[in-house]
Amino acid sequence: MENREDAVHIPSFRDRKTGLVVFGIILIIIGLLLALLSLMCIAHIYVFLGLFLAVPAVWFISMGIGSIKARRWARALLLVTSWVWFIGEINIFIIYIYNEIAQGAQIYEDNNSTWIWFMLVVFIIAPVILILFYGSKNVKATCEFRNPQISWTDKCPLPVLALSFIYIYMAVLMLPDGLRPDRSNAWGNSFFWICLGRGDRCGNKNHLLFPVLLRGMGRI
Predict the structure, then answer these.
(1) Which of 14, 25, 64, 109 is the most buried (most CB within 10 A)?
(2) What is the distance between the alpha carbons of residues 24 and 134, in angstroms, rounded to a whole number?
(3) Chain segment 47-60, per-residue pLDDT in tens
(4) Is the pTM of this model over 0.85?
(5) Does 149 score more than 50 pLDDT?
(6) What distance lies between CA 102 and its chain's CA centroid?
(7) DSSP codes joined into one string, 130-168
(8) What angle do CA 55, 88, 133 make, to 5 degrees?
């Protein structure tokens, strides 16, 4: 009887607890570095930049702790933000490469190549690694096994979470520009049309990436 009971509780997946701990530690280290940079900016009177860096610092630290504890909400939120991170930053990367080529710059020069490799690692490789890891079925099963209690993120579809993060991010970006009359209307109009699903009317091509993001999130 004991052997049968033990067999029932043996998980039918690969336990990724070690990977969750490793990624959690890395995220906490990144958060601590951002927190240190935030304090340095505030100390040198760059208050707005310091507060801007404090937000991702808190986010990385909290997500790292959640990953170490194998929490369901941490996996879901990290997966959502990784998708938003990847889709948003790959747009910046492509525009940068296009502008460099259009201006006749040699992208293989030392300065350009160093910056391109930095952007490639931070903007593309890092979020892709997070997407592949936290989007793994084994990681999802591990979090569900070690955190059996239903989380609030389980009750919300991931595409809805992704759109919520996009709109929150855009709203935050509007705050500093609201102090500049020459740009506040442009940001407000862009945000208004994108919320209505008519991003094509704001002259911003970022709305074209939203279906890609939602399609990818819907398959997870």
Answers:
(1) 64
(2) 11
(3) 777 777 888 899 99
(4) no
(5) yes
(6) 29
(7) HHHHHT-HHHHHHHHHH--SPPGGGGS-HHHHHHHHHHH
(8) 80
